Amino acid sequence: MQNNVEKRPLDMKSVLILTLTPIAALIFIPYYAVTYGFSLADWLWFAFFMIATGLSITAGYHRLWSHRAYKAKAPLKIFFMLFGAAALQNSIIKWSSDHRKHHRHVDDKELDPYAATKGFWYSHFTWMLRELPRKVSKIENVNDLEKDKIVAFQHKYYVPLAIFMCVLLPMLIGATYGSIGGCLLLAGLLRLVLNHHFTFFINSLAHVWGKQKYSDENTARDNPILSLVTYGEGYHNYHHKYAGDYRNGVKWYDFDPSKWIIFSASRIGWAYDLKTTPKPVIEAARASMQLKHAQNKLKDKRYIKLVVDFEQRLETQYKLLFDSIKDWAKAKQACLQAKKDKLSSTQVIQLKERYKELKRKFKTERKVWRVMAYSSAKLAKSQNGRAA
Known about the structure:
Blueprint: H1 2-7, H2 12-35, H3 40-66, E1 71-72, H4 74-86, H5 92-104, H6 120-124, H7 134-137, H8 143-146, H9 149-156, H10 158-175, H11 180-203, H12 224-230, H13 236-241, H14 257-267, E2 271-272, H15 279-297, H16 304-341, H17 345-387
Antiparallel strand pairs: 1-2
Helix pairs in contact: 2-11, 3-4, 3-5, 3-11, 4-10, 10-11, 15-16, 15-17, 16-17
GO molecular function: oxidoreductase activity, acting on paired donors, with oxidation of a pair of donors resulting in the reduction of molecular oxygen to two molecules of water
Keywords: Fatty acid biosynthesis, Fatty acid metabolism, Iron, Lipid biosynthesis, Lipid metabolism, Membrane, Oxidoreductase, Transmembrane, Transmembrane helix
InterPro entries: Acyl-CoA_DS, FA_desaturase_dom
């Protein structure tokens, strides 16, 4: 198979864009900085274009259109459509087609367009340098997007839109304050190169660097550091487990600007029908992975009886935690159903009290579980030290 990959013809459009833009940035930006200098306005427009294009890919191309994690009104869709074209990562339809295949066939060396299992550099950008097999490259499974007039418009006029947003718009903005070259080089060229590789990190680094907190079914990993340059996409293990969730950083303190933008847009009516994963489901997945990690750490130790006894206690506590999660989830569902059935206020209050009681029980069991999971790591480490 590898030989067939090597023989595939080069995609000259991608080769030229991905090689010439970084070279041009390395040559012209230092030259312009020394010869003319960049103004504060140049840097401010660079920051604006950087954030606008980055969020248009993450909150727009990715969460809105590829995964339908929420719905958006025309103003937000038009903004994401235009600045998504400025990111120069293909049209919404093509991008979403590739990404849906990635999720459907993640890590499959034959069908995943940018499978991390084929190597870091392949998943980062070299997959774009050669023409992909027809079964991988063809646009499919995007009938819903093709019916969207804004999306269809961008796909039809993608090239002129991309040229306008990447080149002409920065020049026009620069002309308003007498710095056509400065604005073009920073907001156009430098922004484009950085935006490319920050996005590519999600396909490469986010599949090799980080923790698997929710699933080990594929190579995706959570990495808060990556979220700093990917607008919240670094929580990639969670995303691959729950791709339909509009959040990637599920905790309130997780750095996820895309989540905050989507939520803020919903407050003013520009976004709606935000999809989230129920908290009990998330907690169950985390607990399952914590048990698996703990069991792996306790394997192959010399002090078998001590380890076996602890592992049995660990599994017992896991079952208690899992039962508390299920009871909590059932109580929550009962409360929601009571509102739909319009039960009496007394019955609703009783169900809410039951829900609160089971939530408190879950939190107690979770505390015990976390202490035991942490202790398992210390036990495994101490047994390693004794064995040595």
